[in-house]
Amino acid sequence: MDYKQTVTAALAKALDGQLTADEIAAKLERPKTSDKGDMAFPTFTLAKVLHRAPQQIAQDLADQLDTTDFEKVEVVGPYLNFFFDKGVYSEATLKTVLTAGDSYGKNEDGNGGNVPIDMSSPNIAKPMSMGHLRSTVIGNSIAEILTKNGYHPIKDNHLGDWGTQFGKLITAYKLWGNEADVKADPINKLVEYYVRFHKEDVDKPELDDVAREWFKKLEDGDEEAHRLWKWFREASLQEFNDVYDELGVKFDTYNGEAFYNDKLEEVVQILKDKHLLVESQGAQVVDLSKYDLNPALILKSDGASLYITRDIATALYRDRTYAPAKNLYVVGSEQTYYFKQLKAVLKEMGVKSADNLQHVPFGLITVDGKKLSTRSGRIILLAKVLEESVKLAAEEINEKNPGLANKQAVAQQVGVGAIVFGDLKNERTNNIDFVLADQLKFEGETGPYVQYAHARAESMLRKAANVDVQPAGNQITDPEAWDTIKTLADFPAMVKMACKELEPSVIAKYAIRLAKTFNKYYAHSKILTEDAELPARLALVKAVSTVLKESLRLLGVQAPDEM
């Protein structure tokens, strides 16, 4: 039963056309506590129209309202407070959740539209650090949320496997590298060379010229440059995939920058044919002054391509291959200006999906307030963080539940889930100062707290396995259950909001809220007491378990049945 619609209809009838249904719905508020009602209508804005005091308007409306569908309607100052019929509302909500199961909240708003998601995209020959976590888990969660809303996401790990950094890496390897060392410890050795290059080129700027020459050789198909590049790429991918497996993240394509190398010529030709390329100090640029943007540099003076050249080729390929309903780039906030330039160039080129290109920015992960950087050697390896988190989770579980049968598997789910949830509970544009111990707490706004609420619900269902729980006929009048029931009813709206805003934190914050209301209900009510309402209470527990598990799944977090 959609009570928002019911409240809107009752008010529309009483107002007799003075506000439209949409205007009424937009003004409805959710009181902070249930003792002030379940929905409230403020009358301030009607005072000017009706030339009466808001308090009087509220009272007049109350006198005219049909209250059949409500437990009661109270006037409190300028507010009309609506109290829902708890029995009817609980029965309707639980029936909807239990009948739909894990499909609860699913809709077809996306109409099957393709949505390529440019995400994760680590640079080859560099380890995955905590700095790579955000794009990976935000992109993965957005993909799950889009699917829930009827879209068809295409997760594209657009690997940084091309560009001037490979000229630097090849130069460093040729100067200081050793094949046996690299084979023994590929990523760490390659990073060591890369960091050394940036230290040495401070006093030896000629190294940059050598690096540019090597990258140009790579672009031109030089055999040695290509052999080294391929070796670096394969070694890196092997380590990346170990991390992705642990995070439970899968991709639909790994088309990195190198995939588009043979497509750059067409990009340049289109820009030339449309008379968009102009020369500037020997380089080729696109003038974007009509967008109040700086020129986009397409080709360097030596003819070498840049990130944007390859990103134009990528966008063109996605446009032709997927005809995207949206084309998303889950990339840090520092690249916001760059994506404005990319979108402007694509619009000038007449690419059909240019208007659907959307940068999905996110803030930095810092440690002790300092930014992470491979170049400076200040990195915290993501694999090491996950390993430490699982270890700490195992210690916590061993202390709380030493008899748990599958402790290591649960520790893996809790430890990894804590890192993922700890990121996604934050609004994505916020910066995060990472503290591992804070993520793993079983109390407070953490992943383990939500997972534990789900495990508690499952434990109760196991204890009452002999009780037949049906989707229909579950009226609950216990006021302690009321906040939990209303929160369950909110889930479909949260799914839609998370999709509209491309914001996983909407789901994470919802999961915390549901876990809190359920834990409060559990603390104040004897759920397993054998009386007439026991099946209805168990139906509520089952609904909570279902929605918590689905909320966690949308975030890319597993929900253990026991902890």
Q: How would you describe this protein?
A:
The chain has 563 residues and is of the alpha/beta class. Among the domains are: 3-84, Arginyl tRNA synthetase N-terminal domain (Gyrase A, domain 2), CATH 3.30.1360; 163-255, no CATH class; 421-555, Isoleucyl-tRNA Synthetase, Domain 1. Helices cover 53% and strands 10% of the residues. It has 21 helices and 13 strands. The protein has helices spanning 3-15, 21-27, 46-50, 54-64, 86-100, 133-148, 164-176, 179-184, 186-200, 206-219, 223-247, 264-273, 307-322, 336-349, 382-400, 407-424, 436-439, 447-463, 482-501, 505-524, 534-555; strands at 39-42, 70-76, 79-84, 114-118, 152-156, 277-280, 283-286, 296-299, 327-330, 357-360, 365-367, 370-371, 432-433. It has a four-stranded parallel β-sheet, with helices on both faces. A three-stranded antiparallel β-sheet has the order 1-3-2. A three-stranded antiparallel β-sheet has the order 6-7-8. The chain is globular. The mean pLDDT is 93.
Describe the protein's topology:
Layout: H1 3-15, H2 21-27, E1 39-42, H3 46-50, H4 54-64, E2 70-76, E3 79-84, H5 86-100, E4 114-118, H6 133-148, E5 152-156, H7 164-176, H8 179-184, H9 186-200, H10 206-219, H11 223-247, H12 264-273, E6 277-280, E7 283-286, E8 296-299, H13 307-322, E9 327-330, H14 336-349, E10 357-360, E11 365-367, E12 370-371, H15 382-400, H16 407-424, E13 432-433, H17 436-439, H18 447-463, H19 482-501, H20 505-524, H21 534-555
Parallel strand pairs: 4-5, 4-9, 9-10, 11-13
Antiparallel strand pairs: 1-3, 2-3, 6-7, 7-8, 11-12
Enzyme class: ligase
Organism: Levilactobacillus hammesii DSM 16381
Subcellular location: Cytoplasm
